[in-house]
Amino acid sequence: MSGTEFGIIRHHFGRLVLIKLMCRVLQSSSILVPGDTVWRRCEAGRLAVLNDAAAYFGALRSSLLLARQQVYIIGWDIHSQTRLVGASARADDGFPEELGPFLRKLLTNRPELRINILIWDFAALYAAEREWNSVQKFTSGAPDRLRICFDSSLPLGSAQHQKIVAIDNSVAFVGGLDLTIRRWDTSEHLPVHPLRCDPEGRAYPPFHDVQCMVDGEAAATLAELAEQRWQAAGCAIEGPRPVPGDRWPVSVPIHAEGIPTGVARTEIQTASRRRVNEVERLFEACINAANRFIYIENQFTSATDLARILAERMLRVPSLRVLIVTPKLHSSWLESQSMQNGRGGFIDRFVAADVMERIRIVHPSSRDERSEAAVMVHSKLMIVDDDILRIGSANLNNRSMGADTECDLVFEASSDDHRKFVAGLRRQLIGHFCGAGEKEIENNEADLFAFLDKISASGRQKSLKPIETCPPTSSVASLVQPVADPKQPLNLERAASRMWTAKTILGVSGISIALIGLSLVWYYSSLSDFADVGFISSLISPYSQSTVAPLLAIAAFVIGGLVIFPVLVLIAATAAALGPWLGFLSATAGVLLSAAILFAIGRALGHRRLQRLLGPRASRVQGRIVGRGILAVAIIRMVPVAPFSIVNVVAGASKLSARDFLIGTILGMTPGILAMAALGSQIADLARSASWTSALLLALAIAGWIAICLGAQFLVTWLAGRQT
Questions:
Q1: How many CB atoms lie within 10 A of CB 380?
Q2: Contacts of 60 (CB under 8 A, 6+ apart)
Q3: What pTM did the predictor assign?
Q4: SS3 of 544-579
Q5: In whole angstroms, what is the distance from residue 103 CA to residue 106 CA?
Q6: Under 8 Å between Cβ of 300 and 396
Q7: What does residue 73 show for φ and ψ, rounded to 5 degrees?
């Protein structure tokens, strides 16, 4: 080999090495890292971004009409009366408008088609919001090829929150929208719209969300994910996997083609599945890739860890600006309370970093000549530097990082056409909130915040207004937020099983047996004559007009607690003797003081013994159940499973904090005390002279007690799993 030939070979080899190195650099700069930030990296053959439910419902309807083999509908909530219609709010294809009848007729006309619907199985806690008997309403008169499966595979406090529709492995939809009621709206977001009402005719405010539609590899990957979710819920797969075909309706415009795509998930660890937190890592990667501008639309902003990462990135990159569009208020008082602390903590990270002049957190407003309404922002969208587009189901809250199942799609621009599309979408979304066109937004991007302020002050019909921040002062918000927005499943059952081991039970069994024995004495010995509502009421009644009457009643609770006297008898007797209001206040004070004293006794007698039995495990277990003791105590108090005094002493002997114990006692005992206070005199009458009338009133008292306790249990458990 001549020197010239060797030189040529060396030159080409050097170029090959350089090309490989460049490819590695380009690949490493991508945020789409399978097994880390995304589950799969694939390509979307075609992509459409559907702004608001009218666009999504219309596109989905057209796609379903092309379905031939198999459809998966995966959601947090799915309602048979959802009107699956586009911007006109009318259907002209000869099929019913409502989702349930539409799917039934679709199956009748497509003999080979199968439709699988997966819904999160938490309807019992959402009775006021969910559709009653939804299975029958979907399947009545439908072929057996329509199957509904309720996903009950997740632990307490976790939700199935993915929102996916996959059609024939060919077309798929992902975003923040469920196929349920009170979602439909057009991008005009009029303050009042005659067609924006639920099946009962009740109007609801303007509603904004974003969904995306893909085909190609991305659609096939989402179909596989939907199938996995179906199987994880314990539902059987039937029939062969469909052969892909073209299911893209001609009525849906294509916004981008051949764009690199990633699928990111949050999955909850179960006995058969490992924990997956690609969604959280993808958020971090998106933030750390930003250099110029981040645009976010999200229903919740309470993930303070992500806020900290974003604030740190803004400190490192002084040119970076951030615009976050979020709701002014949440859809319910409880939801607002549960997220109040979270939003305040989120904003505090930027205040502490002193970058507030480069970030705006705003809400959209729409008005006409007669009214003004805040637009409900339900979308989960993020755009970074016009290079990255992210659309999915994950909120910027703690739940979406680890407590709920989620699915996001992320698109990474790989050409000028892709970047032009992403930039245009960002301008369109900002503009549609403030009545401005894409060009107007583009012309004012150099000082976008000032432009948005000018529009807000100008009195335009649509504008983006700053979120009014205020310090979280509500004790209810402080109580609810850790339970309603956990980063991991509550796993109360597992925490309880870890704490109350055989050794622990033996450690407190001596105290418990003694207390239970004393409690039984009041019911099955001659002392039972004194454990009588009428008797106790007669002792307190002579002093009912005296200023010391409440003190005597409170003292009775303290003494009764020490001797394991039935607390329900004391509550009813106090209410009967002192009347409903004074009886309620005296009983509440007595219950709390008695509980606190017995808790302290239990702590002094059993705390050290319990720690010796558990050793280092005690600290680990305590770490797992911090913030959840309130919920556990409240539930036990609502429907007592053990005598009042025994619960107090055993709670004191455990690692439960006094604060959690007392707050849980207040929450759990108050409903029952209210019921007894309202019907205390009737209970006393029954105790003095039994009759059909007094028996009926007693039955009403018991029914009232049960109803209030069940309602309170509903409320507390609802707080543990709330998510939209």
A1: 28
A2: 84, 165, 173, 179
A3: 0.69
A4: CCCCCHHHHHHHHHHHHHHCCCCHHHHHHHHHHHHC
A5: 5
A6: yes
A7: -120, 110
Confidence grade of residue 619 (pLDDT, cut at 50, 70, 90):
very low
Please give the average per-residue pLDDT across 54-68, as a whole number: 97
Coil, strand, or helix at residue 361? strand
- 362: part of which helix (H) or strand (E)? strand 359-367
Rounded Cα distance between 332 and 471, Å, is: 19
**DSSP per residue, 589-615:** HHHHHHHHHHHHHHHHHHHHHHHHHHT
Q: What are the beta bridge partners of residue 311? A: none
- Is the pLDDT assigned to residue 69 strictly greater than 70? yes
Residue 621 scores a pLDDT above 60: no
Q: Which residues contact 65 (CB under 8 A, 6 or more apart)?
A: 93, 95, 106, 249
CA atoms of 581 and 416, how far apart (whole Å): 72
Residue written as tokens 């309130």? 630
pLDDT tens digits, 266-286: 999 877 788 999 999 999 999
State the Cα–Cα distance between residues 204 and 200, nearest whole angstrom.
11
H-type helices in 626-657, by residue range? 629-638, 644-653
Candidate from 171-180, 498-507, 584-593 with smallest mean pLDDT = 498-507
What six digits make up the tokens of 161?
A: 């929150």
Structural domains of the chain, ranges and CATH numbers in brackets: 40-466 (3.30.870.10), 490-721 (no CATH)
**Residue 140 backbone dihedrals phi, psi, to 5 degrees:** -60, 120
